Amino acid sequence: MAIRIDGKRLAEIVRKEVAQEVEALTARGIVPHLAVLLVGDDPASEVYVRQKAKAAQEVGIRSTVRHLPAEASEDEVLAEVAALADDEDVDGILVQLPLPRHISEARVLEAIPPEKDVDGFTPVNMGRMLTGVGEYFVPCTPQGVLRILRETGVPLRGKRAAVIGRSNIVGKPTALLLLAEDMTVTVLHSRSERPEEVTREADVLVVAVGRPHLVTRSYVKPGAVVVDVGINRLEDGRLVGDVHPEVEEIAGWITPVPGGVGPMTVAMLLANTHLAAVRRRA
């Protein structure tokens, strides 16, 4: 049976590290400030925003939430982002996604200054991450995935990795991080033919597609590290990942859902916010 990687425990370690660093920064008169912009009344988004604000406060990061109605125009949202960008007291800006359909996520994200883009989603940060040139922020979930992999102690250099999912938020940046660890990386997606033939060769398998129990044991190399980024709510209310429970019988390490990658995403947001404050003001 696979060893379960406790994301909650690891996230708590990261939070304590951040809290100590924030305390040292605060002693110098610098209090990191995270501003979150929420547009609309999506219940899930409201829960996520509350969780992030609470987590920030617990480590000593100041957190403010700007809430615009769902009918707010794109220009109004851009004006709010511009105001936060100009506010020298704000270190990090997070725009909660998804936005209402009539608002361009691309335009809004492009309006966030790279030095305040603690989500790591802007084209400038993505480009710097791709090239490795200049300062940038690593997107929170991929950063959490890498921290989880390092926690296992499994050697990464020279090994094979497969990433199922090619989103700009998780799949692509995760692949870049694994490349930077000198892994041989293959990215698979909905158009990939015979994906199992590739994933069965992978020492590390990261799954981020949002399809309940997509990955079964036939996808997995015995002893592999399996990181399940997906989180899906079934009709009976249960939260499940993209990886079928039977994979635990063959994998060497696996992240549970919930309690795996999710807590690490929030923890890495806190780390990025502290880093933004250090770069801007320390």
UniProtKB/TrEMBL annotation:
This is Bifunctional protein FolD. It catalyses: (6R)-5,10-methenyltetrahydrofolate + H2O = (6R)-10-formyltetrahydrofolate + H(+); (6R)-5,10-methylene-5,6,7,8-tetrahydrofolate + NADP(+) = (6R)-5,10-methenyltetrahydrofolate + NADPH. Keywords: Amino-acid biosynthesis, Histidine biosynthesis, Hydrolase, Methionine biosynthesis, Multifunctional enzyme, NADP, One-carbon metabolism, Oxidoreductase, Purine biosynthesis. Catalyzes the oxidation of 5,10-methylenetetrahydrofolate to 5,10-methenyltetrahydrofolate and then the hydrolysis of 5,10-methenyltetrahydrofolate to 10-formyltetrahydrofolate. GO terms for biological process: L-histidine biosynthetic process; methionine biosynthetic process; purine nucleotide biosynthetic process; tetrahydrofolate interconversion. NADP(+) binds at G165, R166, S167, I231. The gene is folD. Pfam families: THF_DHG_CYH, THF_DHG_CYH_C. GO terms for molecular function: methenyltetrahydrofolate cyclohydrolase activity; methylenetetrahydrofolate dehydrogenase (NADP+) activity. Its EC number is 1.5.1.5, 3.5.4.9. Homodimer. It comes from the Bacteria. Signal peptide: none annotated.
